[in-house]
Amino acid sequence: MKAVLALADGRIFEGKSFGATGEARGEVVFNTAMSGYQEVLTDPSYKGQMVTMTYTQIGNTGINPEDIESRGLFLSGFIVKEYQECYSNWRATMSLGAYLQENGVIGIQGIDTRALTRHLRDKGAQNGIISTIDLDHASLVAKAKAIPSMTGLDLASGVSCDKPYHWSEGSWDLESGYPQVDRAALKYKVVAYDFGIKYNILRCLVDAGCDVTVVPSNFPAEEALAMNPDGIFLSNGPGDPEPLVQVQEEIRKFVGKLPIFGICLGHQLLGLALGGKTVKLPFGNHGSNLPVMDMSTRKVEITAQNHGFAVDLDSLGDAACLGHENLNDQTVEGIRHCTLPIFSVQHHPEASPGPHDSQYLFGRFVEMMGKFKGQ
Fold it and tell me: What is residue 176's predicted lDDT score, i.e. its pLDDT?
């Protein structure tokens, strides 16, 4: 079936649909990962966005239950150069197209994704619409122009859990799959705020020795402190961090009381809670091959990233120091409090998909909790 992608600035791409049919709208971004499309699809941080994969063949490893990173698909649409209906993977249970159809996500294939990516790099990420029912270019562009900007949108509350729950699953093993870890073997109690948390973050925390309780994004700090945790974790998530004013206020209540570790949106929220500001990036950083420097060791690591906003370091003043730096665009990739056991990173140390260079950060969090607990 014919499908059309229309951008708000009038650029049109014609292709064929796969997955669900109908109409989808959102901010169009591109992801430079060569693999891991299933983890990308199930990352809640993509809520409100339509993802373009820059790698050309997508779908050749199918879909399997073990690589799902959340309870569902939250992205608006999926854009690829060449969709592979026939898949080959010993764990696969269905095709990518069937998976998208089952979850109501529209895909478009057969367009020049390199031209689209270059356009987004030159003009910036922008709103767009994919349709299989309205193929009139002028009509689609008008609809794309009417889509609200990502700036100012609170999307995290729409992907967070409804009530607290405990997580005890560790990382995947070739022989046994995902193990269930005995809580008695876990040394540190962590309250993890869910702004769109990925499962592999929780697994990495368990692997590091953390007894994890996941709570909703609006969970009161007083109730979290009543659980007597050893640390607070702030998760990834979608949208603009600035509208989450109440969340920022709750985070401030933890400062000086417990070690805090934030990832992605959690990093941005921590920066705001410490008095800083965030800025919207032209086209964001989305992929699994982005270089970052740990400023404390001067070591370079290749990271997975997925964000459209960044913390403005200058706005933090003396509240925090630069912890990590993005070596492509020199944006803030991490901050650390100058005196308290608090730090955060913009990238994803849990990967899924991506390299594992940054997984040491979970150990750093545990080390902080150990020192704080021993005071």
Answer: 86
Number of folded domains that form the chain: 2
Q: Which residues contact 34 (CB under 8 A, 6 or more apart)?
A: 55, 288, 289
The domain containing residue 173 runs over which residues? 156-373
Q: Is the pLDDT of residue 44 over 80?
A: yes
Out of 126, 145, 164, a domain closes at 145
Query: Which residues are the active-site residues?
Result: 264, 348, 350
Q: What integer is the mean pLDDT of 332-349?
A: 97
Q: What are phi and psi of 141, to 5 degrees?
A: -60, -40
What is the percent of the chain with per-residue pLDDT over 70, rounded to a whole number? 100
Q: For residues 37 and 59, is the Cβ–Cβ distance under 8 A?
A: yes
Q: What is the CATH number of the domain that holds 259?
A: 3.40.50.880
Based on the fold, state whether residues 232 and 361 are members of the same structural domain: yes
The verdict on 300 and 332 lying in the same domain is: yes
Helices (H) and strands (E) in the chain, counts: 9, 19
Same domain, yes or no: 96 and 190: no
Measure the CA–CA gap between 375 and 373, rounded to whole angstroms: 6
110 and 186 share one domain: no
Helix (H) or strand (E) holding 134: none
Half-sphere exposure of 349 (CA within 13 A, CB side): 25
- Assess whether pLDDT exceeds 80 at residue 59: yes
CA distance 260 to 255: 8
Contacts of the segment 292-296: beta carbons below 8 A, 24+ positions apart: 292/324, 292/325, 292/326, 292/327, 292/333, 292/334, 292/347, 292/358, 293/324, 293/325, 293/327, 293/333, 294/323, 294/324, 294/334, 295/321, 295/322, 295/323, 295/324, 295/325, 295/334, 296/323, 296/336
Same domain for 293 and 320, yes or no, is yes
pLDDT tops 80 at residue 375: no
Q: What is the pLDDT of residues 240-297, one digit of tens each?
A: 999 999 999 999 999 999 999 999 999 999 999 999 999 999 999 999 999 999 999 9
Domain for residue 193, yes or no?
yes
Residues 222 and 303 in one domain: yes
